[in-house]
Design a protein that fits this description.
CATH architecture: Beta Barrel
Number of helices: 4
Number of domains: 1
Order of helices and strands: EHEHEEEEEHEEH
Shape: globular
Helix content: 25-40%
Distance between the termini: 50 Å
Oligomer: single chain
Strand content: 35-45%
Structural class: alpha+beta
CATH superfamily: Small protein B
Number of strands: 9
CATH class: Mainly Beta
Largest sheet: 7 strands, antiparallel
Radius of gyration: 19 Å
Strand order of the largest sheet: 1-8-9-2-7-5-4
């Protein structure tokens, strides 16, 4: 069997980039049960309202909802159970130091398949204030207006 390569997105947390400034990102493996993987491959995962925490030298993601696999019967697990993230010890130390700073939190940004394995992009984030969100919306609107004007002028 040929080895799969590339990166196939499974789920994204679009709200995260709206509500937070992403300072840095880390790639982490996810410890999953068999039926959870099958359900995730079908795209039945929800990252909204999910967050990660460092606990006893390990990183766990909470409130990530993986819908039960339909053919899973009694092998299915609790959809909201905490899932352990697989990171190097040095990365865990960096994450713990970052979260100790006031206002920083760990937010799952997206889940994707990489070489046949489920991976999660984890962001070290700072919450945006309301005026920051308004500022971002104003920038997007201005960029959209400039693009529209250029298209009309050149077309």
């Amino acid at each position: 069997m040929a080895k799969r390569s590339g990166r196939k997105p499974v789920a994204q947390n679009r709200r995260a980039r709206h509500d937070y400034f992403v300072e840095s990102t880390y790639e982490a493996g996810i410890e999953l049960k068999g039926t959870e993987v099958k359900s995730m491959r079908l795209g039945r995962v929800n990252l909204q309202e999910s967050y990660a925490q460092v606990k006893d030298g390990e990183v766990f993601v909470y409130s990530m909802h993986i819908s039960p696999y339909e053919q899973g019967s009694y092998f299915n697990t609790d959809p909201l159970r905490p899932k352990r993230l697989l990171l190097h010890k040095s990365e865990i130390r960096k994450l713990q130091a970052a979260v100790m700073q006031k206002g920083y939190t760990l937010i799952p940004l997206q889940i994707y398949l990489k070489n046949g394995r489920m991976k999660m992009e984890l962001g070290v984030c700072v919450g945006k204030r309301q005026h920051d969100k308004r500022q971002d919306m104003a920038k997007r609107d201005a960029q959209r207006d400039m693009d529209r004007a250029l298209r009309q002028h050149s077309g």
